[in-house]
Amino acid sequence: MAVVTEEAPSQTVYALLAQLQTVANTCAVVASRHSHVVRAVDILQPQLGVVLQGRKQISCGDTQLNIHVGEILLSKRACSVNVANLTDDYGLCYATVCIPISETVLQAARLLQGEAVLTMATEPAIACEKIDVCAQALSAWAGAVLAEDEVAARLALTQVVLHLVAQGHSALLLPPSKDLAAQIYDLVRNRPAHAWQSAEIEQHLHLSGATLRRRLAAQGSSLKQVILHARLNCALDMLYTSTWPLKTIAAKCGYQSVNVFNQRFLQRYGLLPVDIRSE
Hints:
Elements: H1 11-22, E1 28-32, E2 36-43, E3 47-53, E4 55-60, E5 63-67, E6 71-75, E7 79-86, E8 94-100, H2 103-113, E9 126-130, H3 135-146, H4 150-166, H5 180-190, H6 198-205, H7 209-218, H8 223-241, H9 246-252, H10 258-269, H11 273-276
Antiparallel strand pairs: 1-8, 2-7, 3-6, 3-8, 4-5, 4-7, 6-9
Helix pairs in contact: 1-3, 2-4, 3-4, 5-8
């Protein structure tokens, strides 16, 4: 029986990965020294995830992917995923650089691509691509970020998006859907430590309490649940991207008790914060 081996990344890809590593401090890097599984992770906008070390297993609905070094995880729209972040063969580290794709970049790509992109809506929310398909544009983006040239960085990232669309990922360009829960989610994520009350959110969204509750119920949610999920999503980001102790992260996300924070985190994600990062 033939043995299938994973193809090693080329020297060009390794050079690009090294370049991306140098810009890691300017964007979010999901890193851990422990292999772990996290369920129900909210991805809030289109983004690229380039695996620098280790590998990632991810599922969303019927789609299951294995992402290795030199590959891109493409999230085409907001979605909830289950993730296994696995350290490298030496058990040293897992790291992925996350590159959010702003609505400004997507609007530019829509204008350049034209109306042809609006023919599809059934693509999976996530996909895997070899980094080679957009290596030159991604390298240009990294160079512009290092040079602190925001305009050049947006232009390069627009080219990355167009290369991915050319590979069949047209759903990237679908306009975002901002339902009520997503609007509240964004509010809470901007101020996760704030003691959010229904009246304050009603005033901000110009809705009555009854309308707010009815519309959230129609989405299968509640205000309490949206606030909880938004705060825990912030906490998950902080665990991966900061060196703050757990007590600080808990407080920044609205929890004065670390024990309560641990309980809520476990209920939501299926693991404790220390399973991601030891104190």
